[in-house]
Amino acid sequence: MSEILQQHIARFVNVPNVDHAAIARFFQPLELKKKENLLTEGKVCHSNYFVEQGLLRMFFVNDKGVEQTIQFALENWWLADYTSFDNGKPSPYYIQAIEKSAVLAISRTAYDELLQQYPVMERYFRCIHQRAHAAAQFRIKSHYDLSGEEMYRQFSNLNPQFVQRIPQYLLASYLNMTPEYLSEIRSR
Amino acid sequence: MSEILQQHIARFVNVPNVDHAAIARFFQPLELKKKENLLTEGKVCHSNYFVEQGLLRMFFVNDKGVEQTIQFALENWWLADYTSFDNGKPSPYYIQAIEKSAVLAISRTAYDELLQQYPVMERYFRCIHQRAHAAAQFRIKSHYDLSGEEMYRQFSNLNPQFVQRIPQYLLASYLNMTPEYLSEIRSR
Hints:
Two copies of one chain form a homodimer. The first copy, chain A, is of the alpha+beta class.
């Protein structure tokens, strides 16, 4: 396991006796080219992905055949379709590398075994999901509350590093606006 | 602790030696009248709430002074503003009983102590937040993907028990439509 995940775990699990070498066996390192898919529509999301380096996005193809991006993940973020990961049913999503990326994958089977053998990792994943749950509440509120322009301002204030790295057409898709309108907002 | 939470824990934590009596000490039972608030805007969300009986909603008051409902919780559901619960800052939300309700409250301090003393509860809350995270992903997808009418059909298919119990004007608020439009959809 890379030092990156090790440090991330140490942020949440403050115990000296975490056996990082043993835990590393549960993760598979993957190198992804730009635009390479980790998940495609109709397949089961068998793994949960931790971004060591690079940038991923999750999207679905809508009724009009357009790719609708709903989530990004950069360094130190986890990404999966957690419904499919949990129930083993086909996913409506794609997970794709926006940049050349290095990720650690943990399969559902390995995840269950890891938690069984190293219960301290329950704490780590409890923290990860609790924070993601909090972030999702905040995001759902924004959907009710903010205009497209306000969504952009909030997103760029909270995630300045994203706005530098994400291609404009993908950010526009995430914000549910046309690239032209995003460009207009940015030029103001 | 009531049998309701005990059974809910047993669904996720399949170990015979959970000391339910000891765990119960961390929770405070509360009886709520209809329309009683557990949280008001500007206050810190100090507790996480488990619904034993009844129905809660979380809402904020928007710029126009209108209550915007963003979440419901009925029996066996947890509800809190997890951002405020985590960072101790004031919440933008109200949490209110829609019906006369019985809830179990666990304060942030008690939560931290519970997890410290009974690490098996990490597993329980990891499962709760992982499922909530999955549900939030699904809901965010719906915001991009579905019309108001489709949102209503999906919501009533997935939560038939809600549709019976939630007053129409609150369901309309949650679905971000007027009560008149919801009534029109329902009469079709």
